[in-house]
Amino acid sequence: MRVTDDIIYVGVNDHEIEADLFEGQYEVPLGMAYNSYLIKDEKIAVMDSVDGDFEEEWLENVKNALGGATPEYLVVQHMEPDHSANITAFMNKYKDAKVVASTNAFKMMKNFYGEDYEDRRIVVGEGDTLSLGKHELTFITAPMVHWPEVIMTYDKTDKVLFSADAFGKFGANDVEDPEGWACEARRYYFGIVGKYGVQVQNVLKKAANLDIQIICPLHGPVLDDNLSYYLETYDTWSSYNVETKGVFIAYTSVYGNTKQAVEELAKVLEDKGCPRVEYADLAREDMFESIEDAFRHDTLILATTTYNGDIFPFMRTFITHLIERGYKNRTIGFVENGSWAPTAARVMKSMLEESKDINFVENKVTITSALNDETRAQIDKMADEIMKNY
Ligand code: FEO
Question: Which of 101, 153, 287, 376 is most open to solvent, judged by the fewest CB atoms within 10 Å of its CB?
Fold first, then answer.
């Protein structure tokens, strides 16, 4: 596949991983793409490698794209093994090639693969350039998007930004994602990069000074139209702003009573005209779908049981994920259930008290086993308070 006349896609699609987890924790029902690109010029540069399970396929893709020519550079933008695993294989095959990477990347290369190519390397930092002939590459440091060594690369000839993990998504490139780009890109962003909003903002500021016509990420499709949409969406996500007005309710339920309260709250909110209401079971559905929904909406309701004097474990894990990712700038309310001493709301609130710019809903719902007239009245009061925001 050609990205431009001179840039050829040499990445691979991974469907084996659908039976496993990406990076040990993310479900990927549509597989995963590990992207790599080859820039053909007087000097040829290959942009990143791919996951270790695809060494042969990737080397074959590179060989075919080379058409008998010899590569001059392997640019390593990111050292996470889904992209760096075949550096050694490439350097062994192309003995005259040099690795181009950041200082930190070379340290990691030594640690991961026992070799940092002291005699065959070019260390690059912010604003450094590398001429391939017609194409001039400019390197942009992007620390913590999503590891400290990350660089992005701008080709000013074809106006292409090689964006490393940024703008990537879950899902292989040889299957159509029925939900389009945003859903799996959002789950990817908040799952993997979400903690580093400030660093993403810093890179977006640098990108704003570039004329970008095409974005080539390391996962997911090449983005070549309506780029302002992707840039603005990333700006919203990385600034922790609200993407969609509405309420997301995350719950756990042992016997179905808390679930019933959630369903009733959702119905009451909808009846009162809430712009959007979504809910999910943290134990039975992919938790990272819930994380992206928590960041997507302006209001989050947490509903869980009191459990061993604490809260149900899936809820504790969920809140921990949110805190780790700097959850802020939202309205949060609580529904608790406890048959003899309900304390879940207090525990959840104490976990979130250090989070910034949180408006807690004053009216909580306390269920002491099952719903009754009193708890239904609490649900109604909570919904009224939430609706004041719309
Ligand atoms: Fe796709 Fe951070 O590795």
Answer: 376
pLDDT tens for 90-147 read 999 999 999 999 999 999 999 999 999 999 999 999 999 999 999 999 999 999 998 9
CB 97 within 8 A of CB 60: no
**Cα-based angle 13, 220, 156 (whole degrees, multiple of 5):** 115
pLDDT in tens, 263-318: 999 999 999 999 999 999 999 999 999 999 999 999 999 999 999 999 999 999 99
Beta bridge partners of 218: none
Q: In what order do the strands lie in the sheet with 73-75?
A: 7-9, 37-39, 45-47, 73-75, 98-101, 121-123
Q: What is the 3-state secondary structure (H, E, C) of 282-303?
A: CCCCCHHHHHHHHHHEEEEEEE
- Report the alpha-carbon distance of residue 167 to residue 126 in Å, rounded: 20
Ligand 1 centroid, distance to 193 Cα (angstroms): 9
Buried b (16+ CB within 10 A) or exposed e, 128-145: bebebeebebbbbbbbbb
With tokens 């919203």, the residue in question is 236
- Span from the CA of 191 to the centroid of ligand 1 (angstroms): 12
Nearest C-alpha to atom 1 of ligand 1 is from which residue? 165
DSSP letter (8 states) at residue 49: -
Total-model pTM:
0.96
Atom 3 of ligand 1, nearest CA residue = 80
Q: How far apart are CA 158 and CA 288, in angstroms?
A: 36
Whether 51 is in the pocket of ligand 1, judged by its Cβ within 6 Å, is: no
Question: What are the DSSP E strand ranges found in 237-387?
Answer: 244-251, 277-281, 297-307, 310-311, 330-337, 358-360, 365-367
Residue for token digits 């779908």?
289
- Tens digits of residue pLDDT in 364-386: 999 999 999 999 999 999 999 99
Taking only the tens place, the pLDDT of each residue in 199-251 is 999 999 999 999 999 999 999 999 999 999 999 999 999 999 999 999 999 99
Joined together, the tokens standing for residue 151 give 């660089």
Residue 40 Cβ < 6 Å to ligand 1: no
- The 8-class DSSP code of residue 273 comes to T
Report how many helices (DSSP H) and strands (DSSP E) the chain contains, helices first.
Answer: 12, 20
Instruction: Give the distance (Å) from ligand 1 centre to CA of residue 151.
Output: 12
Ligand 1 within 6 A of 169 CB?
no
